[in-house]
Amino acid sequence: MTDVLARLVAELGDAVVTDAVALSIAQADKSGHRSASAPLALVSARSIADVQTVLRIATETGTPVVTRGAGTGLAGGAIASGGEIVLSTMAMNRVLEINEADQLAVVEPGILNGRFNEILGERGFWFAPDPASKAISTVGGNIATNAGGLLCAKYGVTRDAVLGLKVVLADGRLLDLGHRSVKGVTGLDLTALMVGSEGLLGVIVEATVRIRRAVPGVVATIASYFPSVTDAAAAAAAITAAGIQPSVMELMDSASLEAVSTLLSLPGITTGEAHLVVQTDGPAAQQEADAALAILHSLGGRASLSTDPVEGERLLAVRRSMHPAMERLGTTLIEDVSVPRTALPAMFAEIVRIEQRYGIRIPTVAHAGDGNLHPNFIFEGTEVPDMIWQAADELFATALRLGGTLTGEHGIGILKKRWLGLELGDDQLDLQRQIKRVFDPQGILNPGKVF
Amino acid sequence: MTDVLARLVAELGDAVVTDAVALSIAQADKSGHRSASAPLALVSARSIADVQTVLRIATETGTPVVTRGAGTGLAGGAIASGGEIVLSTMAMNRVLEINEADQLAVVEPGILNGRFNEILGERGFWFAPDPASKAISTVGGNIATNAGGLLCAKYGVTRDAVLGLKVVLADGRLLDLGHRSVKGVTGLDLTALMVGSEGLLGVIVEATVRIRRAVPGVVATIASYFPSVTDAAAAAAAITAAGIQPSVMELMDSASLEAVSTLLSLPGITTGEAHLVVQTDGPAAQQEADAALAILHSLGGRASLSTDPVEGERLLAVRRSMHPAMERLGTTLIEDVSVPRTALPAMFAEIVRIEQRYGIRIPTVAHAGDGNLHPNFIFEGTEVPDMIWQAADELFATALRLGGTLTGEHGIGILKKRWLGLELGDDQLDLQRQIKRVFDPQGILNPGKVF
């Protein structure tokens, strides 16, 4: 270990950080999970060459490497432990190219999604992947987890925005995957394979991504309240069935709304009410919003519509206050199951059943446009109690039974690895492990994660 | 070999075809290329179980298997030779489910893209992947090649439309990949890896795909003519730069237009003129078309716009007549390079240079919205002459130099395998081969293709 550290310092100088605070931070992410011991060192890579050096030394010494962006993950995917090198790509944060005519940009992995969007916004462009963490999460991390967000039903997931990647392999070799053209089918699609691979296959050191021209027209926001989450879910389904394609459609159950109502001192909320917020954009935004408003009213919702940007943000603030509101209730395990849209009501009913069975509260929000739910398991203390994991286990099994998935956008990381086989089955799991070995025969990249 | 055939017949009965005509058809595809000898047998699979039986027998006897849909490929990817089993999925052509609320459908691989769209159209839905071959190509083949088409810049490529796949592995095991939800990030994205894998990794036996609600509003079509292909390409670039997102934007150079003009006896075409056809759809279709028309006029184009569906089809007929027009000129090698949009003028200039250097004609059409070009190398006889391959070699090298790719939507198959390493490099090529071995350790799936 001393030898590894000495070699890192000899080759990388002050890019190598052994400060106790920095190492401690790398033991955790936003999931609340924390590793048992501090990693060996953190290398703050400044260049592709630095990343290659780290991986060459790691391969030669058999040292595990945990690649890490901003550490905003919710599945423990970038948490490091004793004996591991943390490879931070946060300092590689430049926008290398913005090509408006080709509608693409080339970025380093450490740039924050929000910052990248600010830079693009100045030119009338944007980057569609929009995880809730976008202000504080990196584009590299978004790609490594195939991040979702609020806009996916209309604007796709991160994978759909990635044209090409530069990746450093476990042994330090640099790969150039994908292309700058819209289309390209030369060989197997390793770019797509790399998206969402959670640090298992290589280190993303550069990305060529699609950028979009700013959507023309107004953004219309509708905030609505319904007597129950079932009513709100039915309203969301009716909007989709009417052929309306909202950019955002977010559902909050009564426990979530109650917590936010308390935090923000919202007036006029009745116990048991649920919240549905809908945004439309593009040339038909007003027309779609008017149609959505009529549906919400006809189904018994109290609803108001605004096309004023400031008022729109105010209407969205209820949904955006979910996380701070949850923090007041206790420690939170934020789950992330995804089901087909039509299974949302069934999934909400099952969550109520699980709440009752375990005597716990599970305030839940959902990206109603795409069927992705975030049930928040609330508990006391810092470690997730076994009973909560049992309840989560029932949640996962239910999502799979309803045709869904363990994780819609957060990834497997450490926290969900024990359920991986339940979704994939033995044959697929075995294939995935073999693919991992093709890229990383020594198993030094993010060991103990996912598999 | 006799033993293999006997086993196939014993287990699959009259699904096994040894008719000389059927076997001869399987020696070729729409590329014009033909294998040297007839395959051993063709199995017309009726079910997943049939596919599993074929692969089990193939694995036990070490017999190569070439999976084949409608045989409309343009790269020789589904061509079979002596000693190989042709596994046809054409008879597995049912639509198993259409779920309007979840905006997905489950289909067998043999359904024709056009037929699938007819069925969806009756319900007000459609399937976005739109290769020019859609009337005669299968959804399974579209997925196996990650087919593109005219609408990709606006509506994505086939990969973006695939949520999940059932795949039979080389040894006959059945895998269930992906999900029915919009989002899902459980483990490595093997669904995306399978899309475009050209029969190398497994046999697609069922697909869960996104379907879209019919686009509301009119479809506006503009046919325009410019003095030169450079002028027409500049007009296409100006339309994109103005923030207009056409659904279709197709460019024909003067040689292409001249050939079609002769075929259709078009009036008023002057020698040297190039053609640009633009379609817009969606709620802003009329507005975008008006803006595009103004741009085309301002840049010196003769242009006319129609929102009448019949007139729109008439305007598109020029582009649609490209293939029959080419057939009159001689035998055609249809190439498929793709470059960033802004490199289109440079690529057209290079094609002129290659024409002059080799003394050949290369009428070229381009999907101008996404930068995908189809240069048509014209020659006499049935085999592609070496000189044509030398010219194509220059074409490929040029596309790569301009930041593009060997193939935008047709695939590698047999015809482009010798150039694969040029684009991927040795390290990536080696990784791809190793991934192939993970799925197919004996190398019985589509041997001699791609790698």
Account of the 3D structure:
Chains A, B: It holds the Pfam family FAD-oxidase_C. Chains A, B: Keywords: FAD, Flavoprotein, Oxidoreductase. The structure is a homodimer of 451-residue chains. Helix content of chain A is 36%, strand content 19%. In chain A, a hairpin with a 5-residue loop joins strand 8 and strand 9. In chain A, helix 1 packs antiparallel against helix 3 and helix 8 packs across helix 10. The longest helix of chain A is centred in the C-terminal third of the chain and has 20 residues. Chain A starts with a helix and ends in a 12-residue tail after the last helix. The model of chain A has no long low-confidence stretch (mean pLDDT 96). At the A-B interface, strand 9, helix 7, helix 8 and helix 15 of A face strand 9, helix 7, helix 8 and helix 15 of B.
Pair of chains with the largest interface and how many residues each contributes? A-B, 87 and 87 residues
What value does the Rg of chain A take, in angstroms? 22 Å
Regarding CATH, which class of the largest domain in chain A?
A: Alpha Beta
Strand order of the largest sheet of chain A: 15-12-14-13-17-18-16
* Low-confidence region ranges of chain A: none
Protein name (chains A, B): FAD-binding protein
Cofactor (chains A, B): FAD
Organism (chains A, B): Mycetocola manganoxydans
GO molecular function (chains A, B): FAD binding; oxidoreductase activity
